[in-house]
Design brief:
This protein is mainly β. It has strands at residues 7-18, 22-31, 34-39, 42-50, 53-56, 62-66, 73-74, 80-81. It is built from no helices and 8 strands. The strands form 2 sheets. The protein has a 6-stranded antiparallel sheet, with no helix packed on it. Strand 2 (22-31) and strand 3 form a beta hairpin.
């Protein structure tokens, strides 16, 4: 059985804030129906928006802005991928 790999979403980018107030531009990826951000040589899962930022699976990384209007990519509520 093949595993689901990470796939870059063309034209989708995010601005992340890391520990220490460091901001970085990052690519957005999908794996199954979930969205991920490239960070620190790996990936962190994008979670629901809280206030002005989206959370991630790493409590030291938040997403301050993300591409909008990408077909199949939804970032309102629980971020998800519904495209191909």
């Amino acid at each position: 059985m093949a595993i689901e790999l990470f796939h870059e979403i063309p034209d989708a980018e995010a601005i992340i804030r890391q520990r220490g107030g460091i901001f970085k531009q990052a690519k957005v990826y999908r794996r199954g129906g979930k969205l991920y951000i490239g960070a620190s040589g790996g990936y962190v899962r994008l979670t629901a928006k809280f206030g002005d930022t989206w959370g991630t699976s790493n409590p030291n990384i938040s997403v301050v802005d993300i591409s909008q209007g990408i077909p199949g990519m939804f970032v309102t509520g629980e971020p998800r991928w519904t495209g191909n």
